[in-house]
Amino acid sequence: MQDGVMQAWLESSHLAGGNMAYIEELFELYLDDPTSVSDEWREFFDQLPRDDSNRDIKHSLIRDEFREAARNKLKQAGSTVSGPDFKQVKVLQLINAYRFRGHQHANLDPLNLWRQPEVPDLSLAHHDLSKDDFDTEFNVGSLAVGRETMKLGEIREVLDRIYCDSIGAEYMHIVSTKEKRWIQQRLEGVRGTPTFKAEQQRKVLRELTAADGLEKYLGSKFPGAKRFSLEGGDSLVPMLKHLISRAGEQGGKEVVIGMAHRGRLNVLVNVLGKKPQELFDEFAGKHGASKGSGDVKYHMGFSSDFATPGGNVHLALAFNPSHLEIVNPVVMGSVRARMDRLDDKDGSKVLPVTIHGDAAIAGQGIVQETFNMSKTRAYQVGGSIRIVINNQVGFTTSKREDARSTQYCTDIAKMVQAPIFHVNADDPEAVLFICELALDYRNTFKRDVMIDLVCYRRHGHNEADEPSATQPLMYSKIRQHPVARELYAQRLKKAGVIEDDYAEDLISDYRDQLDKGEIVLPEFREMEAHSVDWSPYIGNEWDVDYDAKISKDKLKELGEAMSSVPDSVPLHSRVQKVYDERMKMARGEKLADWGFAETLAYASLVDQGYHIRLTGQDSGRGTFFHRHAVLHNQDDGSTYMPLNNIRPEQGQIEIYDSVLSEAAVVAFEYGYATAEPKAMVMWEAQFGDFVNGAQVVIDQFLSSGEQKWGRLCGLTLLLPHGYEGQGPEHSSARLERFLQLSADHNWSVCVPSTPAQVFHMIRRQQLRPVRRPLIVMTPKSLLRHQLAVSDLDELTTGVFQNAIGEIDSLKPKKVKRVVFCSGKVFYDLLQERRKREQDDVAIVRIEQLYPFPAEEVADILKDYQHVKDFVWCQEEPQNQGAWYSSQHHFRGAIPKGADLTYAGREASAAPAVGYLSEHNKQQQRLVDDALTIK
């Protein structure tokens, strides 16, 4: 620190003598938390000189220098610290302790079962204070209560009300001083006692009556039926309604909600406006004649419009299977699609709300993955509101030492510095206040925020469960505990807000409405026409006609445009070579390779105005150095995308290198694709095997979403697949799993083997008026294989071929064996056959394994009706790949009386061997088996 500056400090009147120790303590508080001191002091400390590199000096160095200066000055002055100065600092430390740890003494549990450990920092004695100081006036520093000084007794009382009553606030872990100061102003400004007008209070009572009334009605009408009731967490209903209303008032247009089972039926009826009669019919087992298997009641989604002071807000409750937290990234993807459609750059028009269980949010890793994505370019949605229905028990697990390793179930949110507001669900006004604070924080700072709605579960995990067997003490308390509606009605009566009969009248009125079966939500509005239109894609089968024509001149034009890079973007020498080669391919001087054809497909689509979104762990460059769609300037590290510079007013293509996640990322892209049919949404695995990490998304959403919920989705998965001797974890995309899940034309599973095929496949997926997933086994070695090339004419004529017949000039009558295969093994077979100069074995490629192209294969086999020997050849072990799942298709395609045998690796627990020498032996053996006629 400069001597002149220090001297100026020491000569200042308020830094002299005994005040020096007072300032030192203030400075210590400032170092811990800049918001703990007043604005005046913070501004003073902020002016401490920086070092020459304009970085902050380490706190320890500043502190040591400050202390040394204080000691020297005190020696010179011969002074000691005065009592009032010492205690003033201790008062400020007490205030800061409440901000940090007041939540640990808050009255959060409606059942009063929590036994939080004593926090010494919150005691007067810890700060060398006592009740004898209660009448002494102290400066309150930055405590935002509207006064500069207060008596210690008042300070202690107001701190208890703010931080230790029905709200427990955790926000001091946030790095940003601005954000912490904002939260302090909002929390402390009401002194722990938020006020609502009588009209709003009566509205809350009506909503609590509705929440409680629906559960009691269902319980009496359908006793023992599973409904995962909200009882104990009834405040969720007024909270959600208030949140939506306030969001609309602040300019929000859409709210997307994701939640698991608990309270879902209540939210459907009392927040989204589903007709009670429709719900009753579902309980009674009635259903419409719509196609699909349907799903259980507490998995279903819903859409409606909700009237707010700012206009109607569109609500969408996401469909969600029993895999609990997996819906979170689905919601975020849906929100991102809506943001893009509304040109909403920061999330001000679309709000994601996810509702969690306390056991699930602490136990499911997808929560961490979704939080980790929240501020990245590809996945940010402007922050989300996370609400935990904290029943204090999972299925039967309630002891904290069994349920998690953290004090609170919400501690995971600290990884992204989200503020966490714990609130007692039996205090509806505290719930509404926190709801307002959370939404305003999210809208102001565009960050996630967590509300921990501490409540209880009146019944077992479901209504047929007996909870007392495992939680006897908890359920003894619950049986005697009044519901939130009763508690709040008594509170309003005592305050003179309602008359004695008012609450009872609400109960009977709501029950009458349920008896009628009509909509009970006053804010419900019939949905207006929204900007997304699925009608062109509904009811179409795979073979529907579409216009795929594109001229050779147009392809050359697009090829040159996507291969042109400005001189101002110097490329890596290897990338420059790739682009030089692509320019030759565009001009017809060189055959097209895989990377060129794939990129040209994207260029042709954006030229037609389509939006493309491609994410994956290395998608910009491509894991195998083949795509190079995102170019990196070798001088300054900036990026350039030729595909976004095809022509003015083209469609946009987004390509992002994603976070290192599979489950959350694939779920996000699924959510995006279900909300935006006009965009081509793609996810690429780094290696196909890594899709294992997203198996839940594939099983619960991608493969069955249309059958269960009628949800169309055009998501494309690009999964590198092929046996090149790279070991068990880098060979197989688990083709067998996708084929096993294939039914009802739920998706297509393709294994393209040429650049022309991948070009036509990508275009077909977007141009065909069908929105079902596409699963692609993409190659690795074929990306640069000398035989895996295509002429430009192949790209301009025809469409994707579901099956490809013999390409060599064999005489059909001489053929004694036909080998079926897919993917890379075709080239191994072809090269070996040519090497042998063999002309009695024909090779047929099945490029689309599902839906199986029976007609195309039948057409190819017309010339081979005399053949009795058919073989399916695959690289994968016999119990994997296509053999077990698809052999019935192969048998159905071959002539009557013909035999079908298998050529490939033997059954194996692992996908592949780890030793290259063993791999090569196996590969040669399976090729020999396929080509050698016994």
UniProtKB/TrEMBL annotation:
GO CC list: cytosol; oxoglutarate dehydrogenase complex
Keywords of this entry: Oxidoreductase, Thiamine pyrophosphate
Cofactor: thiamine diphosphate
NCBIfam families: 2oxo_dh_E1, PRK09404.1, PRK12270.1
Family: Belongs to the alpha-ketoglutarate dehydrogenase family.
Pfam families associated with the record: 2-oxogl_dehyd_N, E1_dh, OxoGdeHyase_C, Transket_pyr
Domain Transketolase-like pyrimidine-binding: 592-785
Protein name per its UniProtKB record: 2-oxoglutarate dehydrogenase E1 component
